[in-house]
Amino acid sequence: MSKEEHNNQHPPKPPEFIRKVKFNLVQLIGIPIFLIIPVLALFGVFGESADKVSASSAEFEMQVEYPNRFRYKQVNPVEVSLRNTSSQIIPALTVSFDHFYISKFSETQFTPQVKEVTENSYKVELNYIQPGETRRVSVSLQGEHYGRHNGSITAETERGSRADVNISTIIFP
Amino acid sequence: METVIRVAIIYLIIVIGLRVLGKREFSQLSPLELVSLMLIPEIVSQALMREDFSITNAMIGLMTLFILVFITSVLMQRFEKVEAAIADTPSVLVRHGEFIEETLNKERVTPDEVFAEMHISGLERLEQVKWAILESDGKISIVPEDLEEQYLTGKSKEKELSA
Predict the structure, then answer these.
(1) What ipTM was estimated for this complex?
(2) Which of A10, A22, B118, B135 fits a disulfide with B123 by CB distance 3.0 to 4.6 angstroms?
(3) Cα distance from B34 to chain A (closest Cα, Å)?
(4) Cα-atom radius of gyration of chain A, to the nearest Å?
(5) Tens of pLDDT along A78-106?
(6) Distance, in angstroms, between A36 CA and closest chain B CA?
(7) DSSP 8-state symbol, A10
(8) Residue A23 CB coordination number (10 Å)
(9) Contacts with B94 from chain A: Cβ below 8 Å
């Protein structure tokens, strides 16, 4: 088909030009900033993350698994495992959660139920823990207040054997 | 991390979906097209954001979308094949006063729609149309026969004068 015939069959095409990638100043500044957030997200910076801490006393061992990062309105649990490492029954073991820390979350649910709420802590009591037995206390938390929240979890027997751990959680807005 | 992947997947599905639907979906919308375009965000919003309504998630999603749009536009600018694959190429609907029925049917354009565009351009008969082109953005461009003749006549007069 000659050029004339082609032009008769199809409308003329725009002229060729050298295709180059060019950015203006706003794009040079803005695009890297835009890019940072998804890249960080791909590496899990803004995602949920959990941590484990443990402590022990003469009678028991305590292990706490808690969320150290999560987002607003997401629900995550704090799991406390307590193992009787002594050769005697522990008649009563009180697990105390920092009131200030818990107040930064909403829809909190304790399993087992809270026995006592004081100005400083929420107390859960476990009874008659057999030697070698492991019991769990779980607290479901919904992210409410943004920022980093620090707190502590303490477990103490009637005989005064005590262990405590510090925990820290970041809630993204 | 999941949000980035989800937005990327949904973005790809929408780009491919709109590409498959064709150019008409980008132009003035018929009720059917309007409904389909309104339903897309409703259908995909849950898949995109899940139960996570945090600003963090929204920001990650938005930034991912901006970056995808920007990368797509850069690739379209840089590579002709990418541009053709994503933006589609214009289709000729009328050639020298004659409908190309195959294209009209493929692109789901009716003669009435072409005539409506002709009327906007001040034309009333099909013979007055040299080209009616369905552009990549879904609009119909009309090139009248007379205009080109006038243009050519004008050009030849310019040449005469300059000579």
Answers:
(1) 0.72
(2) B118
(3) 31
(4) 29
(5) 999 999 999 999 999 999 999 999 999 99
(6) 9
(7) S
(8) 12
(9) none
CB A54 within 8 A of CB A62: yes
Residues contacting A43, CB < 8 A, separation 6+: B1
What is the C-alpha R_g of chain B? 22
Residue B96: HSE in the Cβ half-sphere, 13 Å Cα cutoff = 6
Q: How confident is residue B55, by pLDDT bands cut at 50, 70 and 90?
A: confident
| Beta carbons of B63 and A37 less than 8 Å apart | yes
Coil, helix or strand for A147? strand
- What residue in A sits closest to B134 (Cα-Cα)? A11
What is the structure's pLDDT at B100? 94
Spatial separation of the C-alpha atoms in residues B44 and B61, rounded to whole Å: 13
DSSP-assigned states of every residue in B19-46: HHH-GGGGSSPPHHHHHHHHHHHHHHHH
Residue B15's H or E segment, with its range, is helix B2-21
Q: Tens of pLDDT along A104-163?
A: 999 899 999 999 899 899 999 999 999 999 999 999 999 888 899 999 999 999 888 999
Confidence of residue B22 (pLDDT cuts 50, 70, 90): low
Peptide bond into A112 cis (omega under 30): yes
Contacts with A164 (C-beta within 8 Å, 6 or more apart), sequence order: A55, A152, A153, A154, A155
Helix (H, G, I), strand (E, B) or coil at A86: coil
